[in-house]
Amino acid sequence: MDHNIHEYYETAIAVAKEAGEVVKDGFYKEKKVDIKTSFADLVTETDQAVEQLIMSRFSSKFPTHKFIGEETVAGGKKCEFTDDPTWIVDPIDGTMNFVHGIPHVSISIALAINKEIVVGIVHCPILDTMYTSMKGQGAMCNGKKISVSKISDLSQSVVIIEGGNARSGNEAKTKSNNHLKIIQSSHGIRAYGSAAIDMCLVARGQGEAYIEYGIHIWDIAAGILIVQEAGGVVVDPKGGPVDLVSRRVLCASSKTIAGQISAVVEHIDLERD
Ligand code: IPD
């Protein structure tokens, strides 16, 4: 089947803009917050409303396409990542920021065909910033081409990390040990609270790498293409190509930096999406 990737790309941008208005509206209002898997894993009415809106726009325009959405999966639907054209959506990436009134929130929309991401959009409505990418066409921020940093050694890098939302067991402890090891090998660490934004910052050269264990396919799908199209690398932190459902990701401005980070961290195996 022939695919009009350009049409998918333009539609995704229009849908992200529309969804951005709903996120903006919710951001300045009192929020109704519910707990999901732990007290640090939250959902609001806005997350659910935005996902419904995005899903309805794509299903009416592209009725044969499949859909993986964070809140639909949280509601009990299986995460089925197949070769079919599939929209992968996080309606609010950075829900904790949203709840606390921190502006680093994003809407992440990706389209995968044959398990390859061909469109990636990360819209940050409060920051008024939109990152867009189409396979083979480069990555843009608000319409201007972006590229990764030229720094190519970990000792001169800023590495973006996250605490994530696991609070029990060894996962949190291993992550914090890893963060210490990264601090000791780099210029420093940063954490912005949205995996999609973290990846876009690497794509635009504001930080040389981002690593996280515990994320899901909807947090990283759009960011993967944006980093790759900006000239960066996205890999499995344990080595080899990135696996979208493995719950871990490492992206960097160069293969060298990715390899240096991979060598200092202790790896964590998590249940797949
Ligand atoms: C979360 C954010 C956060 C990351 C978590 C994600 P959500 O996504 O991306 O930065 O550390 O692992 O779950 O829940 O706000 O969509």
From TrEMBL:
The keyword Magnesium applies. Mg(2+) 2 binds at residues 90, 93. Keywords: Hydrolase, Magnesium, Metal-binding. Pathway: Polyol metabolism; myo-inositol biosynthesis; myo-inositol from D-glucose 6-phosphate: step 2/2. It comes from the Eukaryota. SUPFAM superfamilies: Carbohydrate phosphatase (SSF56655). It holds the Pfam family Inositol_P. PROSITE patterns: IMP_1, IMP_2. One of its GO terms (molecular function) is metal ion binding. GO terms for biological process: inositol metabolic process; phosphatidylinositol phosphate biosynthetic process; signal transduction. Mg(2+) 1 binds at residues 70, 92, 219. Gene3D superfamilies: 3.40.190.80, Fructose-1,6-Bisphosphatase, subunit A, domain 1. The keyword Cytoplasm does not apply. It catalyses: a myo-inositol phosphate + H2O = myo-inositol + phosphate. Its EC number is 3.1.3.25. Its cofactor is Mg(2+). Belongs to the inositol monophosphatase superfamily. This is Inositol-1-monophosphatase. It comes from Potamilus streckersoni.
